[in-house]
Design goal:
three-stranded antiparallel beta sheet; alpha+beta; seven-stranded mixed beta sheet; about 40% helix; about 350 residues; BirA Bifunctional Protein, domain 2
């Protein structure tokens, strides 16, 4: 009996070693250790043997069974590792390839598109782009721009103060002074960036974007300002646009003007179906920005003396990027630009 167990063990070990894959190994396991296999049946029949044979036969059968189980487990690990390597090689996926189906590429936000279009216009007119800090000194945000000590914008209810001397800039105009301090005239810059005010409704948000423009040179007049802004309006809103200047007040310009562009949605205030234009409210003009000639006090405040108001003059203007985007694309609510709704953004791809 013990010799028979030995032959079964050797035969089983040879079959396990020769198994070429997991399926063949499982077949060998069933053949030698399955419920109907000879070795398990020998173990179940040990009780029927003579008492002198039970111990040796039982030990030999159990040793053979445990040895086969261990060998099958080891051989199975070897086969599975090789099969995994072959499967990985066969099923390799190049993760650098585009997905299937192709996902659409992303797109720039409408505000980014509008900002870049504005920048392109003024770069073509000879301006350069400058940027400044969003947390600004009160000196640059108000004092150097000729704001009176009692100006409402200085109130903590209107602006975000970080401390008594630092405020989140309420406009990009502080870069007028910083740019003049950095270089002598002539100076032609635009300053795009975020600004902050305590407003929140359908047409105002606590954070929005502006583009400030500044041109300082000899013999610069209000006519140069109008020509520059007319070129801008025609590039952004269409080649037939006209602009008009209306008197206004800003602390850092004198004279100051509000600038309107002729409505691009109607003819003399009426739409194609004869109804009042909803964009210009029937006036045929749309306000787009504020501007003016740089105040002599601002020029005189530049410590270098290079900006003597008796020798150089200039103009400045400022516009809201959100407003330009809303006018161009008929966006009814400013908050739509900030909500991150992909369905809204995809309209402007």
């Amino acid at each position: 009996m013990i010799e028979r167990i030995g032959r079964l063990r050797r035969e089983a070990e040879a079959a396990v070693e020769a198994a070429p894959d997991s399926a063949a190994l499982e077949a060998a396991r069933v053949r030698f250790l399955g419920r109907r296999a000879e070795l398990p049946n020998l173990l179940r029949g040990v009780a029927e043997l003579a008492p002198a044979q039970r111990g040796p036969v039982g030990r030999a059968a159990n040793e053979a069974r445990r040895a086969l189980e261990a060998r099958i487990e080891a051989r199975g690990a070897e086969l599975q590792a090789g099969e995994l390597d072959r499967r990985l090689a066969r099923d390799r996926v190049d993760v650098t390839l585009p997905g299937d189906p192709l996902r659409p590429v992303g797109r720039l936000h409408l505000l980014t598109v509008t900002r870049r279009e504005i920048e392109d216009v003024f770069l073509g007119l000879g301006f350069r782009i400058a940027e400044g800090p969003e947390a600004e000194l009160v000196h640059y945000n108000f004092d150097a721009l000729n704001h009176a000590p009692t100006h409402p914008a200085r109130l903590r209810s209107d602006s975000f103060y970080l401390d008594d001397e630092i405020v989140l800039r309420t406009h990009t105009s502080p870069m007028q002074v910083r740019a003049m301090e950095a270089q002598p005239p002539p100076l032609y810059v635009i300053v795009p960036g975020r600004v902050f005010r305590r407003d929140s409704d359908a047409t105002h948000t606590p954070q929005f974007h502006q583009v400030e423009g500044l041109a300082i040179d000899q013999d610069v007049t209000l006519a140069d300002l109008k020509g520059t802004l007319e070129a801008f309006a025609r590039a952004i809103f269409g080649p037939q646009r006209e602009i008009r200047l209306r008197p206004h007040f800003f602390p850092f310009t004198e004279p100051s003007v509000e600038v309107d562009v002729s409505c691009f949605n109607c003819v003399r205030g009426l739409t194609a179906d004869g109804t009042r234009c909803p964009l210009c409210k029937g006036t045929a003009w749309i306000e787009i920005l504020g501007a003016g000639m740089v105040h002599p006090n601002v020029l005189a405040g530049i410590g270098s003396g290079a900006y003597d108001p008796e020798r150089v003059q200039g103009f400045a203007f400022g516009m809201g990027i959100e407003r330009i985007a809303m006018l161009r694309h008929a966006v009814p609510d400013l908050r739509l630009l900030l909500e991150g709704d992909v369905r809204f953004s995809e309209q402007f791809g």
